[in-house]
Amino acid sequence: MFKRFRSLLRVLTRRRDFEDGMTEELRFHIEQYADDLVRSGMSTDKAARHARMEFGSLDSVKGDCREERGLHLFDEFRRELSYAVRLLRKTPGFTVTALLTLAVCLGANLTIFAVIDSVLLRPLPFPEPDRLMTIFNTYPKAGVGRDGSSLTNYYERRGHISAFTSLAIYRYGTEIVGEAGSTEREQTMRVSPDFFSTLGLGPVIGRTFTDEETTSETDHVAILSDTFWRQRYNSDPNVIGRQVRVNSVPRTVIGVLPSAFRFLSSDTRLFLPLASRPEDRTPLQRHSGGNVTQMIARLKPDATLTQAQSQIDAQNAAMEVDDPQAKMIADAGFRSMVVSLHADHVAAIRPTLLLLQAGAIALLLIGAVNLVNLLLIRASGRVKELAVRQALGASRGYVVSEVVVETTLLTLVGGLLGLAVGAGGIHLLRVLGAERLPLGGRIAFDARLALVALVAAIIMGIVFAVPIAWLNLRRHLGNALQSESRGGTSGRAAQILRHSFIVSQIALAFMLLAGAGLLGLSLQRVMAVSPGFQSDHVLTGQILLPWATYPDAARLTFVESLVDKTGRMPGVLAAGVVDNVPFSGNSGKSAATVKGHILRPGESVRGHYSYGVSGDYFRAMGFSLRAGRFLTADDSRRSERVCVVDEDFARYYWPNASAIGQQLWDGSEAGKDLEAFTVVGVVGGAKQAGLTEEQAQGAVYYPYAFRIGDSVFVAVRTSLPPESLGLALQKVVRQIDSDIPVNDLRSMDTRIADSLVARRSPALLAGLFSGIALLLTAIGTYGVLSYAVAQRRREIGLRMALGAQPGQIRSQFFYLSLRFLAGGIILGVIGAWLTGQAMQAVLFHVPALNLAILVGAACVMGLVSLAACLLPSQRAARISPIETLAEE
Question: Would you say residue 586 has pLDDT above 90?
């Protein structure tokens, strides 16, 4: 079989040599036979003539040889392909319309599929990625849906969960890297020693971390990413043992990762050991993850996720037996969840992407219906030609194969054009911020996408051929041969099919339009939500302070100097510092214990947003003061502990009393009276994680000295455009410490806008899809009505000759368009309701059916349908009875 295929392939690639060789071989055999006849006594001329007669027609013999080799199928295909090209060239209007329709519809689907494929379908780039799990703690009754894991969880679980081959933890972060005077802030990850073995992919040069390197005294080592190694060390193969300065501390390079290594969506440049102290691993720290420390694990080949979950639950139950906080944790609904690492990472964006893909498929269906309708109309115009060919002996298989070749050629060329549209669409998605999606950095146009698009195009071509072939084969030859002379209309079944397609188009377009309206209304309502502060004219930037050079006292001094110098910059109205600014992407929560508050039955300790602030932070951010006063820089230097809470916090704990003068402790338990913070002010509630936050978690603001973290955000209110102060702010920070850069410089308006990427992009794309759908619907309606006018030209001429008025003829096609519209809208409303139900997960305060949107969509569809019927109805009304009868 293989030899036969190879022989066929060789013949096809060297067809001219094969044909010439076959001719020479036949001539040789004829000449040899003639020579044998001459030797037997026959004359030369008679022998030659007898030999030619004996062998028969050379073309017939060649045909038999081609059929024996299987070449006749390829010859037939080539002939049909050539005929299809001629047919498409004869109707350039139809061909261009069809190709543009296919290019746009396939390109739109390819664009969205590129995202779906990269984010949802492609596995993570690690060995057996389906066995990688993530484990996080959840406290739903405390309002904390996800809190990562803790160091204690890691050390208690490592080696004790039999369903896992290995288990590791990691933390995202940033560090100051480089020599003094030329430092940069780089993305880093601090990981446990078994991180790379859990992933199944480690350094290609050097080694990984060891347990001995997980203390602050021994963690002076680093593993480089391939990009960092190439850029900073010029791909030096002898990089092992060299030094890299991180936070002013020299670290020894012990490994370099492969170029393909990328963990989830991070762009980590350096990997460092996750160091800790014994006191960080005690049972008291078991629930102190704060959504900072994350845990991953690899399932054993014979283990299941269900087994792993049950083992984690059993261990948690055993650990909580002697825990004094067990009741409080249980009341909070604590549980550790084991889920697929990939599925968990993309869970938030999955509904939006599936919604977009559904919209793109709906657009493709509209385009397909439109194209099939045009093909049916075109086939109806070739009725007599096909009837004549069938009457002359063309088989049913021949008719079908000819249609399949033509439609497949059309869709394949449209698919090639769709590749260009898809590549442009992927670029557009990058402009819209697709790279900020989970795994969005993997979105690219590649051979896999091209293959999917071309296979889809071929399948579409075969599917399109089915109704066309059915229409061609079911015609009665006698009627078809007389169709032109009789001027009759097309068969009722074909007419019903075309009209049904138009109704389907209108229904699908209505669904798309209504869905786009819901997304647009949802986005409008999200954007109308107040963040709780005045975000205009506010510049923010993040500053990392290394612990090695900035202990607590030095951090406080740096912050005070930063606030003072920044406040004196030209154009600055107010400046302050906070350890985490709203919309930063970090939405961890912590507990606060209110003095005198007794938990009600079913109530648990709540998680709240907690911040350390300094300077004129509240005025810089534009917070409103509800009662009392703001915190000031002096509060960090006083022995008396004070704090500010927001109105959500105050309303929850003191619904019938003033919050001013009340006391609370930072943490889940009450401490000494001297450690309590007295509330001196109440500010307006602010959105912290996003504008769509529904639950008011409440926030507590402490003086910075009592809540010092790894990094700070500086917030500056200015009378100038915020971005114009970026360089000046960098200069001020460098004046304080030349090794400290300012990163993530963005205005608050930009931060808020960036947080809406996952909502804005779907709304824009849905609007684009709807516009294309409307155009395709108009083309389809126009095509069907134009064909109806052409088919009924003789009938219209006779009616007008008998006294029918142009207005009556015009109204006839107008009412036909209205019937299409009514049927489409009825089906569309049902589809819009189902679509709205499916979209509830991504909509914000928008019901599945919105009357204004439905009415608006119906009006738009009405205008499009009526515009599409205008020209055909006008053409019908202008038909001349005399010219029509003369034609007959």
Answer: no
